[in-house]
Design goal:
Layout (H helix, E strand, L loop, with lengths): L8 H37 L3 H5 L14 E2 L7 E2 L7 H8 L10
Antiparallel strand pairs: 1-2
């Protein structure tokens, strides 16, 4: 065993890097082993690992259709969700009604 008290700061930092890398490798190896064991057991039982853990396929988020349009620049739109765009705020402050900006 190395006497840490007799090591220089540079040696200690190098040792720290080695230990960190060894820990990451160890954790990755153990995780892979656990994954292999669980996958094999699930296969033995005739189910997939996704079925065991109830993994759902991710939903594809579709963009929301625009609800409001800038009165002078039709390329500027807003769905009505989230933060109000500056052009929308400015139009409301200038006296426009929300219904005036509807598509």
């Amino acid at each position: 065993m190395t006497d840490l008290n007799n090591m220089s700061l540079e040696e200690l930092k190098a040792l720290e890097k080695e230990v960190g890398a060894a820990i990451k490798t160890f954790e990755a190896r153990k995780l892979a082993e656990a994954r292999d064991v669980l996958t094999a057991k699930a296969k033995e039982l005739g189910v997939s690992i996704d079925e065991v853990f109830g993994v759902k396929s991710g939903k594809v988020k579709t963009p929301v259709a625009p609800k409001y349009r800038h009165p002078e620049n039709p390329s500027l739109t807003w769905s009505g969700r989230g933060r109000q765009p500056d052009w929308f705020k400015e139009a409301i402050e200038a006296g426009a009604d929300k219904s005036d900006l509807l598509i």
